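ok so I'm stuck.
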Amino acid sequence: MSTEGKNSRPDKVTTQTVVDMKQSREKISMLTAYDFTMAGIIDSAGVDVILVGDSASNVMAGFDTTVPMTMDHMIYHTSCVVRGVKKALVIADLPFMSYQVTAKEALISAGRMMKEAGAHAIKLEGGKSITATVQRIVDAGIPVMGHLGLTPQSIYKFGTYKVRAKEEREAEELLRDAKLLEEAGVFSIVLEKIPSELAKKVTESVAVPTIGIGAGPHCDGQVLVLHDMLGLNKDFSPRFLRRYADLHSSMTEAVGNYIKDVKSGDFPNESEQYN
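replied:
not stuck anymore, here's the structure
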């Protein structure tokens, strides 16, 4: 293991690395990214895993849900991220309706994400209904991350972004789904917006790492949307979000100063022009 900055990790994080991190009780850091520049910054800072989420639909394209994202959209964003990353594990979401119809179609989508975008692994939402699909993809040599709890691609089914699995029946179903996904071959599972104690129970019940978002402190790792944790998105303030910067204010101030300097003729000055 080489030591860089605050984190200790191998020269290249792999799916086996994150599995080993669970076994050694080292927490896993994960953030989203959607472009070359941001990916390079968070990779150099030492993040373990980068998720090219279909949340790009919200923060990059301005849609209300993740549903509009296509394979071509996700391949574009993922390829941009991969080119900016040297060490982190890059996982890409398969978008809505790119894997739900048949296992064969899902395998083709996963293959495109690996071959055309250069992803290191893919992520799918769902439990029992997709286990055969997960196994088909894993059998082809493509690593799969699962996703349970609040599954944003199913927003029109649920009709709300509220906490999932608060009732005993749904909690038992989620725990069963986590075990089924593990049996199908996933190397990790995202748990989104579920009660903390349920997330703890799931984490203790499966050998693969769990990554939480709004699922409390007991998961093996945590993930946030980059734009949210950097304070670029001022309108999104769920309980689970901790903002580590206020870049919205900083950028607004910087742009305002630029406009002022252009209007006053102060920019460019003599040192900022060619003779």
